[in-house]
């Protein structure tokens, strides 16, 4: 094993009845096992973020409840100089109509999540997350911001039997903590329609989930990197985090190779230019060879928000990962142009 963190193997409550972190919840697991009911109100953040990629385009869907408001988003990016990019975000003050479950939305046995009107108009957004077989059905509707063309997302993200994912609790204190389930290398299929145009998601489409439930500090900074696909004859998922976990004793770092998870307990070393996010990034384990990768971006999704209760500076760069990783059993895997992203975020919320 490449971590001293405690592996959780049985269901556990995230919180005590008074909303404090349950000490037995601190650790990580290979599948979601935490019951993440968080009683009370204030500083609680809940979200489901899905990004489904292909070699030529991607779509990302977000449903989030920040206690004082909800943010529901559809983002589409077509790669290349003539590719289309747009984002439609519905801001819902107070968050009425956004009810996220304690479990991972879209997991078998979990009630569907549906937000927004069935036929959205103007800046409204509709998102549906439902269990379908062993996978997750993602549907969304909105109007494209520039030309108001109707946008329809209909994707199925599969989950192969025995496929392992990373779930982990990051404890800042007994009153501030985050439970996240990061799921990479899940095969996807379906379409995104923009007016009469259809973007296909076929054999080379991959879904990544960021599921979050927690109580956060007012201000925080983080790095997040992820990628999914086939490389060196293997199916590989990369999941890396940085900055926000420092000093907690937990990390959100892991590899998934052919469905088997290797947990990395070491904090990664992130080297990038905040002045030029499109310059190459390097991510590595400073005291070993579990991760030694270069990320080469080709597009920066830059978001700047300044509001009374919310300030967000996000640079989410899409690009390709190359280098080597090493699994728990010592096998070195060559990573050659694996499509994914790396981001630099500062949040006040």
From TrEMBL:
It comes from Streptomyces genisteinicus. Pfam families: DUF2804. This is DUF2804 domain-containing protein. The lineage of its organism: Bacteria, Bacillati, Actinomycetota, Actinomycetes, Kitasatosporales. It comes from the Bacteria.
